[in-house]
Amino acid sequence: MINLTNIAAKNFKRIREDEELSEDVPLRVSVKGGGCAGYEYVLTFNGATNKDLLFESEGIPIVVDKKSHLVVDGLEIDWSTDL
């Protein structure tokens, strides 16, 4: 399961509207190897495949591929303007 904080959900909804995407376009959460901590987390808006896991949080549909889900299960995504 992946959860969004209220402030994160508001900002993702704003981004989706700015990109003129419909409300049913999910937020994709994926993990790639690399980065200084071992993983790079990627958040994009694009369609789901039949192999994806589907979640919903704060009114935002979220999709995750099964391999990435092993790393992000239980993740809470927050929004910050700090560095």
3D architecture notes:
The protein is an alpha/beta fold and 83 residues long. It is built from two helices and six strands.
Helix/strand layout:
Layout: E1 3-4, H1 6-18, E2 27-33, E3 39-45, E4 53-57, E5 60-64, H2 66-72, E6 76-77
Parallel strand pairs: 1-6, 2-5
Antiparallel strand pairs: 2-3, 4-5
- Unreliable residue runs: none
Which H/E pattern describes the elements?
Answer: EHEEEEHE
Mean pLDDT: 93
The beta-strand count equals: 6
Q: Helicity level, as a percent range?
A: 10-25%
Q: Tell me the strand percentage band.
A: 25-35%
Please give the order of strands in the largest beta sheet: 3-2-5-4
Put simply, the count of helices is 2
* Multimeric status of the protein: single chain
Q: Could you describe the largest sheet, including whether it forms a barrel?
A: 4 strands, mixed
Shape: globular
As a whole number of angstroms, the C-alpha radius of gyration is 13 Å
Report, as a whole number of angstroms, the end-to-end distance.
27 Å
Content-based structural category: alpha/beta
Give me a quick take on this structure.
The protein has helices at residues 6-18, 66-72; strands at residues 3-4, 27-33, 39-45, 53-57, 60-64, 76-77. By secondary structure, the protein is an alpha/beta fold. Strands 3-2-5-4 form a 4-stranded mixed sheet.
